[in-house]
Amino acid sequence: MLTNDILSQWDRENFFHPSTHLGQFARGEGAQRIVTGGEGCHITDRDGNRLLDAFAGLYCVNVGYGRTEISEAIAKQARELAYYHAYAGHGSEASITLAKMVMDRAPDHMARVYFGLGGSDANETNVKLIWYYNNILGRPAKKKIISRWRGYHGSGLMTGSLTGLELFHKKFDLPLTQVIHTEAPYYFRRPDLAMTEADFVAHCVDELEKLIAAEGADTIAAFIGEPVLGTGGIVPPPAGYWEAIQKVLARHDILLVADEVVTGFGRLGSMFGSDHYGMKPDLITIAKGLTSAYAPLSGSIVSSAMWEVLARGTDENGVLGHGWTYSAHPIGAAAGIANLDLIDRLGLVENAGKTGAYLNRAMAVALGDHAHVGDIRGEGMLCAVELVADRETRTFFDASATTGAKVVGAMLKRGVIARAMPQGDILGFAPPLCLTEAEADHIAGVTAEALREVLG
Ligand code: PMP
């Protein structure tokens, strides 16, 4: 039996962790947690802690931990057929069944799903399909992709470029030149506090129009956005935003990609964020909630209109030159089937809406009066608490004070995991969709205690 000390040492000496301060970790500083198990909304670790995971891993364990329905489906699939590829018309019963289940749930105008492994590769697929589409339509110059500042779309070369967070660009020579960014629909941080929501939507539209005019609509292929900004701060859009943006895109023949890696399969209290906000995307990115992260699997769902052009493209040019060895992996597909069944059976989409609203209200009651709470916002089972140095002027705390991270640390001491979002002092909450009201009350209570400990 490995002791904690040995594991900890092996970890520090051998393991190159993602999104981690490498030098600190190697020197034995900074957080280290070796997770051993989980049940419902809780995880356990090697130090004997049992923690309420109010971020569902990386907002992905939507059905909660320890669901034997999924682990048994994975084991059964591994015994029968652990792997076969999906190239040249091959597949498995699991991948075909899951494709049918996804398309039964997707908005009506969508036609097919392509399966990948994670959200980043699904967005890489989307951009390639968009470029292919415009080449088939004889518009080789129409290639740029518009993303929003604070958007998160992955951390590959193209997808890290789409991501509108400085940390993902700095010293990586990103963004690539084909990606341009526009205003985030972040009402709390609007440029002029006198703006109403409607004024601010008009401002976002204006910024988009200006960008399109400056670059030329004939050079712009697509606009990508999360229905609710996630990693960039959990920011639901102002009322009317998506309707107004879609009008601009339609006028300039620009495709819309709804990145539903976080919002897909129920997190907002609707099956898809596109349904929730009346979006009519040409492509939808799915990942996390597709399998609740029990196995890696993602997807790109394409509209009927786009599908027809792609199919015509292969008639003219031969086989689509795009595929991963693990596309539509049978084990991921088996996990996806069991997961979507469970979401239906437990009514988790409804619970996300209902208990998510309860969590947001509980936060408002517990923290709303605190002098350093600037904004409490959310949608469905997503909630953010934005901390400010001054409530009136909305000034930020000095970044070096790491105020948000300190509050998250004080919560962890009390057994609750929240996430300090990467830009600004924003506490993020995205619990499993099976959260109960009692658990929501507990999260809100612990957040209030931690805030008082750090900020008085
Ligand atoms: N899109 C969105 C909206 C995401 O939140 C994420 C991951 N947080 C990704 C894409 C990238 O997914 P992955 O980390 O699985 O590559």
From TrEMBL:
<comment type="similarity">
    <text>Belongs to the class-III pyridoxal-phosphate-dependent aminotransferase family.</text>
</comment>
<dbReference type="GO" id="GO:0008483">
    <property type="term" value="F:transaminase activity"/>
</dbReference>
<dbReference type="InterPro" id="IPR015424">
    <property type="entry name" value="PyrdxlP-dep_Trfase"/>
</dbReference>
<keyword id="KW-0032">Aminotransferase</keyword>
<keyword id="KW-0663">Pyridoxal phosphate</keyword>
<dbReference type="InterPro" id="IPR015421">
    <property type="entry name" value="PyrdxlP-dep_Trfase_major"/>
</dbReference>
<dbReference type="InterPro" id="IPR049704">
    <property type="entry name" value="Aminotrans_3_PPA_site"/>
</dbReference>
<keyword id="KW-0808">Transferase</keyword>
<dbReference type="InterPro" id="IPR015422">
    <property type="entry name" value="PyrdxlP-dep_Trfase_small"/>
</dbReference>
<dbReference type="InterPro" id="IPR005814">
    <property type="entry name" value="Aminotrans_3"/>
</dbReference>
<protein>
    <submittedName>
        <fullName>Aspartate aminotransferase family protein</fullName>
    </submittedName>
</protein>
<dbReference type="GO" id="GO:0030170">
    <property type="term" value="F:pyridoxal phosphate binding"/>
</dbReference>
<dbReference type="Pfam" id="PF00202">
    <property type="entry name" value="Aminotran_3"/>
</dbReference>
